[in-house]
Amino acid sequence: MKKLISLILALCLVLGMASFAAADEELPTFDQIVLGENTDLTAKIHFAYHRTDIPEKLEGYVAEFQKIYPNVEIEYELITDYAENALMRVGNTDWTIMGIPTVQKDELSKYFVPLGSLETLSGLYNFMSSWSFEGVCYGIPSTGNANGVLYNKRIFAEAGVTELPKTPDEFIAALKAVKEKTDAIPLYTNYAAGWTMGAWDAYIGVAATGKDTYMNQDLPHAKDPFADQGNGTGPYAVYKILYDAAAEGLIEDDYTTTDWEGCKPMLNNGQIAAMVLGSWAFTQMRDAEGGEHPEDVGYMAFPITIDGKQYAPAGGDYNFAINVQASYEEKLASMYYLKWLTHESGFAYSEGGVPIDKSGEYPDLYAAFDGIDMLSDADALEGEETLLSELNAESELNFNNGGNTKVQEIIEHGFNHDKEFDDIMADWNAAWSEAQAALNVEVK
Amino acid sequence: MSNVTTAVRDINRNAKMKRALIKGLEYFALLLACFIALLPIWSSFTTSFKSAEEYATTNAMTLPKNWLNFSNYAQVWTEGEMLRAFLTSASVVVVVVMVSVMMGSMLAYVLNRFRFPGNGLIRNLFMIATLIPGIAMQVTTYQIMKNLGLLNSIAGYMILMSGTDVISIYIFLQYFENLDGALDESAVLEGCTYFGVFFRILLPLTKPAIITVAVLKGVGVYNEYYSANLYLQSNSWRTISTALYSFSGPFKSSYNIICAGVLLTLIPSLVVFLLFQKQVYAGLASGSVKG
Amino acid sequence: MSIVSTVQPDLRRKRINWQKVLVIVLFAIVPLFLLMLFTYVPFAKMVQFSFHNMSYTKDKGFVGFDNYLKIFTKSEYVGAMLLSLYYMAGAVVQLALALLFASILSLEKIRGSGVYKAILFFPFLVNGIAIGYIFKYFYTRGFVLDSVLQAIGIPLESLPYWLRDQSVNNWSLVFTSVWKYCGQNMVLFIGAIASIDPTLYEAATIDGANRWQQFKAIILPGIKTVFMLNLILSITGSLSAFEPAYVVGSMGANGTATFFIKIHQMAHVSQKVGQACAMAMVLMALILLFTVAQRLFFRYVMKDSENTFNAKANKAKALW
C-alpha cells in the first residue's frame, strides 16, 4: 500500500513537472510574438510600475491594447518608492509584470520568465543585455535614457555662455557666469529627494572615461578608481563638479528642503540654469505645469571630454519582466502586452527616450548629441556577473544602486568646507579596496 | 500704629502683585506653548487653501485670499484616493482594536483568575517581549511574513498589528487585578460556565479598560506607517499614512496640495479626540499611572 | 508580578476540571501563538543572522563576531549612536516643560484650562508622515518659522538654515519630537497630580507653604514614579529615535542619520542583512541596559513593585 502511494506520488510529481516544463516550452519567445494573433486570450494582469505621475496615459494604453485583446484585463499598481519596495517583494508577489529591481543577475531566472536569447533580441532591440544572464534575456526596457545635463538655453545665453561647456572647468565657469549675470540658481541638486543624488553615479562610466567596459568590467578590478586622473576625466572629475559647485555656492540655497515637483517649472522658467539628470526628465521639465517657456529647456552632454571627444551613457530605463509564478495565460498575455508597449504604444518617443525598438525614432532633444558617442555599458565578464553588485554592497558605496547618501555627503562637505574633496575620494578608494580584498578580487 | 497698618497693607499689596505677576507669567507661558503647538498645523491649514499661483507668490504665513478654495482638497481627495485610504485605515483600526480587546481580555482573564502550570512563564514571556524593540526586528519579521504568504495582504497586516500588541494584555491584566473575584466565584457556584462568566459578567465590567485599549491601539494603528508601507504596498490597500506618503516621491505634488492631504488626515483624529477627550486622557493615565 | 488567583482551586476534588483546561487553552493559545510568531521567532532569527554574512537571498556562512566588530570600528556608526544624545537632551527639556505645564494647569485656577490641555496634547495624535510634511514646510528657508521670527524683529540674515546647517539641524529634528510628545507627557503628569490626596495641599496651605514648597514637598514625591518612568522611557526611546530624521530630515541626510536609520539603510540599500541584524542586536542591548538599570533603580532605590516595571514596558512598546 505504502509503495503504491509513493508510486502515485512520484508519478504525480513527474507528470506535474512535465506539464510545467511543457507549459514553459510552449511559451513563445519575445521575438516570436506576433500582435494580432491569439486575440481571444483571456487573462488578468497586475502591472507594477513606478510612474505614479502618468496613470491616465497608462490607462489609455490599456484601452488601446484591449481593442485587439478585449479579454485581457490589465490593472496597474503605481508605486512611489518603487525601487526599495520591489526589491523586497520580488519572488513573492501577485504582480504579473513588474519593473526589475536591483536583484542579483544569477537570480533572474528564479523570478522572471525568459524572453528569449540575448543574441536574437539584441539584434532587434536596444539595451537588452542589462538584465540578461548567461545569454538569456529576462527583461525588456520600458524606454531608453541617455544621460546628460538639462539646462535653460535662455539663461545660458544671458550669462554669456555661447558654447556649451565641454570640460568640468568650463562647466563650473559657466555656472559662475550664471550666478554673476542672472538671478537663476546655477545648479539645482535636488539634494532632499535623495535618488536625484544617486543619479550622478550614471556618469562615472561612459561619460567620464569614454569606455563602455568601465562600469561592469574595469571598475570592479580597478585600483583606486576614485583617484584624481589629473586631466579632468574619470569618476573623480564627475563628483568634483558637484563638490566645487557646492563649495562655491553655485547650488540652491536651502538644499535640505528642495521640492522636486516645484523645481520643474523653475527650470522651464529660467529660475534654474542646470540640473544633472537623465533624458527621461527632459519631457517632465519641458511640459511642467506652470512653466511658460518649454522652448528654453535644453539638453547637453555631460561636460567631460576624453581625447577631444564627449560621450553619453545610454541605457534602458526600468526593464519590464514577467513573473515566473504567473499562469501560462497570464504569461502569454503579458508577452503580447509588452510587445505592444514596445512597438505600438510610442511610449519611449513620447517620454523623450531613446527607442527600444531599433527601427524606432529618436525625439528632438537628442539633436544636441550630434557628434557625441552614445554608448551603453558593456556586460560584465563571464563569471563576474554579480561582482559589481557584491562590491557595491560590501563597500556600502552602492553605485547606481541607491547609494544616495554618499553623494549627498559630497554636497555637505563641499558646502560646509569641513572635508577636502580628495579626502572623500581617498575614503571611497579605501572602502573599495577593502571590499575588493574581502571578496578576493584581483586588482589590476 | 498707622505705620504698621500701612506696612501690612504694603506687604499684602506686594504679595498680591507678585501673585498677579506669576499668574500673568503662567498665562503667558501657556499661550506661548499653545502658539508653538498650533503654529505648524495652522500654517499647513492656511496653505491648504492657496491656489498654486498664490502658493508660489505669497509668503508662507500670508492668509489665503479665498478661505473657501477647496480645490486642493478636492484634488487630493480624488487623485490621492483618500476615500479608499480612509476606508482601509478604518477597517484596519476596527479589526485590530476588536482583536486586541478580545485577545487581551481573554488572556488576562485566564492569567489572572486561574492558577495553572505555566502561568508565570506566560507572564514572563510577555514581559520580556516588551523589552525587545519590535522595530529592530523588522528584517526578520519581514522574512516570516514573506514565508507565510502574508505580504500585500490586508489580513496579514491586521494579524501583524494585533499580534505584536502587548499593551492591551497589560491593561486588562491590571484591570482584572482590581476586579473583585467574589463576583465570578458566586456565578460559578450557581452553575455558570467559565465562558459564561467571562462573556456575560466580566467583559461588560471591563468597559473602561476596553475604551483605554481602543483609544491607545486605535490611535497607534491609524498613524502607523512603517509596517503599512512594508506590507501593504498595493494601491488598493493604501492606509492613510502610506497614501499621505505617496504625495511625495519623484512624481508628486507641491506643498499647497500636500497640506490639504495633511489636514484631511487630521480630521478623524480631531473628531475622535473632541468626542472622547476624557477617555483619551484617562486611557493614557491608566496605561501608566496605575502600574 | 505575583500570581493572583482569586478563585481558589477546589481542594476536595483532585479531579482535573476539563472545562477550566479548555478555557485556559482556548483563551491563551492565539495570543501565545502570535507572540511566538512575531516576537520570539524573529528574535531567534535575528540572533542567528547577526553571526552570518548574508543578504536577503544569499547566506555566505557563519562569520563569528565580524559583524559586531565592524560596528564599533566604524566611526559613522558610533557617531550615529551619539546622535541619540541630542534626543536625550530633548527628552529632558520635554519632561521639564511637561511638568511645568502640568503643575500650572493642576494647581492654579486657570481659565479654560481644558482648552490649553487639549491644544498642547493634540500634536501627539498627528500622523508621523504628516509631521514630516508639516515640519519640512515649517523649517524651509523663509517659510513659517523664519516668517514668525522676522515678524518679531529678527532679520532673516541672522537666522540659521534650520535643516541645512549641521550646527542646528539635529536640534530642529529633536524639536519635532518634543513638539509631539510634550503634551502627552503633560497629560500623564496631570493624571498623576490628580491622584495625590487633595487634603495634603490644604494642610500645606494652612502650614503656610508657598507654591514652590508645595511642589517640592507634595507633588514631586507624588508623581515620582510616573516621572522616573517617563524619563527613562524617553531615554530608551531616544536610543531608537527614527521618525523625525526619517520624515523631516530626508531619511537621515545631512548628518541626521540615527542608529536605527543606519540599520534600515544597511538592510534595504546595501542588503547586508547579517550586518543589520548585528546592529539591531547592539541597539537592543543598549536599550536592555538602560531598562535593567531602571529596574534595579526602582527595586532598590525607589522600593517600588515590579508592576511599575511592567507598566513602563507597556509604554515603551507603545512608543516604539
Residues in helix, % of chain A:
40-55%
Percentage of residues in DSSP E strands of chain B: under 5%
Structural class of chain B: mainly alpha
The end-to-end distance of chain B, rounded to whole angstroms, is: 58 Å
- The succession of helices and strands of chain B, N to C, reads HHHHHHHHHHHHHHH
CATH topology of the largest domain in chain A: D-Maltodextrin-Binding Protein, domain 2
Q: How would the global form of chain A be characterised? A: globular
Shape of chain B: flat
Q: What is the CA-CA span between the terminal residues of chain A? A: 65 Å
Mean pLDDT figure of chain A: 89
User: Within the CATH hierarchy, at the fold level, what is the topology of the largest domain in chain B?
Assistant: MetI-like fold
Percent of residues in helices of chain B? over 70%
What would CATH call the class of the largest domain in chain B?
Mainly Alpha
β content of chain A, as a range?
Answer: 5-15%
- Give the averaged pLDDT of chain B, no decimals: 85
Q: What do we call the CATH homologous superfamily of the largest domain in chain A?
A: Periplasmic binding protein-like II
CATH architecture heading of the largest domain in chain A: 3-Layer(aba) Sandwich
Helix/sheet category of chain A: alpha/beta
The largest interface is: B-C, 110 and 104 residues
Provide the number of structural domains of chain B: 2
Report on the structure:
The complex is a heterotrimer of chains A (444), B (291) and C (320). Chain A is an alpha/beta fold and 444 residues long. Chain A has 2 domains: 28-141 and 318-352, Periplasmic binding protein-like II (D-Maltodextrin-Binding Protein, domain 2, 3-Layer(aba) Sandwich), CATH 3.40.190; 146-314 and 385-438, Periplasmic binding protein-like II (D-Maltodextrin-Binding Protein, domain 2, 3-Layer(aba) Sandwich). Chain A is 41% helix and 13% strand. Chain A has helices at 2-26, 55-68, 82-89, 108-111, 118-124, 153-158, 168-181, 195-198, 206-209, 214-218, 234-247, 260-269, 280-286, 328-343, 347-350, 387-395, 404-416, 421-438; strands spanning 43-49, 72-78, 97-99, 116-117, 132-133, 136-137, 140-141, 144-146, 148-152, 185-187, 272-275, 297-301, 311-316, 319-322, 373-375. A 5-stranded mixed beta sheet of chain A has the order 2-1-3-14-7. In chain A, helix 7 (168-181) runs parallel beside helix 11 (234-247), helix 11 (234-247) crosses helix 17 and helix 16 (387-395) packs across helix 18. Chain A starts with a helix and ends in a 6-residue tail after the last helix. With 291 residues, chain B is mostly helical. Chain B has 2 domains: 2-47; 81-288, MetI-like fold (Orthogonal Bundle). Chain B contains 15 helices and no strands. Chain B is flat. In chain C, strands 1-2 form a two-stranded antiparallel ribbon. Chain C has helices at residues 18-49, 66-73, 75-82, 84-107, 113-121, 128-139, 144-151, 169-194, 199-206, 211-239, 243-248, 259-268, 273-301, 306-319; strands spanning 52-54, 59-62. Chain C is globular and about 70 Å long. Chain C has 320 residues and is mainly alpha-helical. Chain C has 2 domains: 18-66; 83-257, Orthogonal Bundle (MetI-like fold). The chains are: A alpha/beta (444), B mainly alpha (291), C mainly alpha (320). The interface between A and C is medium-sized, with 29 and 28 residues.
